Amino acid sequence: xxxxxxxxxxxxxxxxxxxxxxxxxxxxxxxxxxxxxxxxxxxxxxxxxxxxxxxxxxxxxxxxxxxxxxxxxxxxxxxxxxxxxxxxxxxxxxxxxxxxxxxxxxxxxxxxxxxxxxxxxxxxxxxxxxxxxxxxx
Length: 137
Hints:
Layout: E1 5-10, E2 16-21, H1 29-35, H2 39-46, E3 50-51, E4 53-55, H3 57-69, E5 80-85, E6 88-93, E7 102-104, H4 107-111, E8 117-122, E9 127-130
């Protein structure tokens, strides 16, 4: 089961420009606030559009070892692309390389997607906030 999240920037008009993380989308607030704590850093992350998961360098090495140990016919490391954004590694499937971020007209539009979490960057406070109401969706 994947834990999908939209990671986005909410604009003054209420619209949201958001990226998708398909797996392990829970408990990202601390990481986002540490590593993507300016509008420019948040924009760089969201610009990546879509990825599977985020890792630190140490976590990425463990993940690569795991992929290499998988049995033949399983997801292989060759199907993955590793993109570094501000010291955090995004794992993308090759088919997701050119996926642009999505513009949602409103908060309701964004939270109406098939997601478990939404993390929004507030450019005024330079803070990320997770919507806890979606936690049990």
